[in-house]
Amino acid sequence: MFDIGYGSDGEIVYSGRLDASQCEKAQSFMDAVAEPGVLDFDKLEYISSAGLGILLKTQKRLAESGGGLKIINVNNHIHDVFHYSGFNAIFDIEAK
Amino acid sequence: MQKSFSRSLASLSSVYEFTEAALTAGRFAEAAKFPVHLATEELFVNMVEYNPETSTDIDMQIDVVDAVATITMSEYGVPEFDVTKPRDVNIDAPLDERSPGGLGLHLIQKMVDNLTYEYCDGRSTISFSKQSGHPNV
């Protein structure tokens, strides 16, 4: 089960498992994000390369206007995925 | 444990449940499950998306022995595609030179052990293993 929505402080909250079957839902939400912001991964258990593609696409779009995404509360496993993908260099990432 | 799955992204939840059940039954360490699920999904998605010309099921087998999980996935009626070959991925590229896609097989090669590929008479068979790091009581 994957869910995405806004938190009480305007952060974008990811939760559950973001696999390839859930990407349409995530992509649709992220396509509507117009401003730089914070993604809270505290309740996100899992992400695969399909989810990485959504993050990258959004980051590239926001970078065109000089902004970007900050990703916080990243668990160790997802941090490994970011590391092996080189995402540490193109996102502002905070581990749990 | 063995099971066959329909060639569709809609099968991913069933693939996850089957994998989780097999690892749990084999007392595979919780902390080592993530890369197994990741590799399983990436391989399954590759099979679905790159072989649309076939409608055959995708077969999976999972064995856990002495804290090592071995996952085998096979499909029939597909062209040869060796998933063990190094991928042309530049993870150091700056943001403006990167594009979505192409990371799945790269991640598998980094996060699992003993990735193998065999192709014979139209059947592709991929196998990988992962050690849990804890005794399999």
Explain what you see:
The complex is a heterodimer of chains A (96) and B (137). Chain A has 96 residues and is of the alpha/beta class. In chain A, helix 1 packs parallel to helix 2 (49-63). Chain A is globular. The model of chain A has no long low-confidence stretch (mean pLDDT 96). The longest helix of chain A has 15 residues, at 49-63. Chain A has 3 helices and 5 strands. Helices cover 35% and strands 34% of the residues of chain A. Chain B has a single domain (2-131), classed as Histidine kinase-like ATPase, C-terminal domain (Heat Shock Protein 90), CATH 3.30.565. Helices cover 29% and strands 28% of the residues of chain B. Chain B has 3 helices and 5 strands. Chain B has helices at 12-25, 33-50, 104-111; strands at residues 2-5, 58-65, 68-76, 113-120, 123-131. Chain B starts with a strand and ends in a 6-residue tail after the last strand. Chain A binds chain B through residues 17, 19-21, 46, 48-50, 52-54, 56-57, 59-60, 63, 77, 80-81, 84-86, 89-90, and chain B through 9-10, 12-13, 16, 34-35, 37-38, 41-42, 45, 90-96, 98-101, 103-104, 106-107, 110-111.
Order of helices and strands of chain B: EHHEEHEE
Largest sheet of chain B: 5 strands, antiparallel
Taking pLDDT < 50 over at least 5 consecutive residues as the criterion, the unreliable ranges of chain A are none
- The total of beta strands of chain A comes to 5
Mean pLDDT of chain B: 94
Please report which band the strand proportion of chain A falls in: under 5%, 5-15%, 15-25%, 25-35%, 35-45% or over 45%.
Answer: 25-35%
Q: Could you tell me how far the N terminus lies from the C terminus of chain B, measured between alpha carbons in angstroms? A: 18 Å
